[in-house]
Amino acid sequence: MNDAFLQYKFEDKVAIVTLNRPPVNPLNTQVFQELLALFAELEVNDEVRAVVLTGSGEKAFVAGADINEMANLDLAGVHKMNKISRTVFTKIETLTKPVIAAINGLALGGGLELALACDLRISSDKAKFAFPEVGLGIIPGGGGTQRLQKIVGQGIAKELLYFGEMFDAQRALSLHIVNKVVPADEVLSTAKDWAKKLASKPPIALQMIKTAVNAGGNTDIESGLTIESACFVNAFSTEDRKEGLQAFVEKRKPVYVGR
């Protein structure tokens, strides 16, 4: 399936989604609508075990929101766009399958918010990052102020948000904003390799890990442990748990079916 601004491929149980608005792949209402529809389909497609999200070309992953669209919006229009962006980023964050951002270039503003909504982030060594919104008299509106601080802490988050300055991939790595930095020509292949490894693992166990980490990270330790316990029991009740333990005993590679 290819929409106007999205390209989609399926390889070895991995969905590869490419934002295609060259040269810098800005986000607008139509892109958000297409992302929401596609990720809803990926959620219910049992053949898909992991997702890679990237941008077209070599210049940008996503260089922010479409300023031309935003500049012409009234308050009601801004509210509507903000609502759909928040819905899309939450959909990606809560997808029951791992989502890996392959950051092939600039990740600015809404593009960085999009990357932060993913589970894992592989970055090109040439990528650049920023939340430049303050220079436009606005602030991030797609979760940037919230997701960023959970990764880097409030002090660093305020520094990056207050100054809005560009930083490189190595600083993004040192701040744990990205998981790995690779040469530019290896970004997509590395992300696909990670996704294929995840696609071979038990889907429900991965889903329970994601639920436990995401939900537990937004609460106190005791509530988090309760969430973890429920997720543990859910994973333990699956056929895949039986297969995993049996394969271990029989010294063979397990074959997981997602039940």
UniProtKB/TrEMBL annotation:
Keywords: Isomerase, Lyase. It comes from the Bacteria. GO terms for biological process: fatty acid beta-oxidation. Pfam families: ECH_1. One of its GO terms (molecular function) is hydro-lyase activity. Belongs to the enoyl-CoA hydratase/isomerase family. This is Enoyl-CoA hydratase/isomerase family protein. It comes from Bacillus aquiflavi.
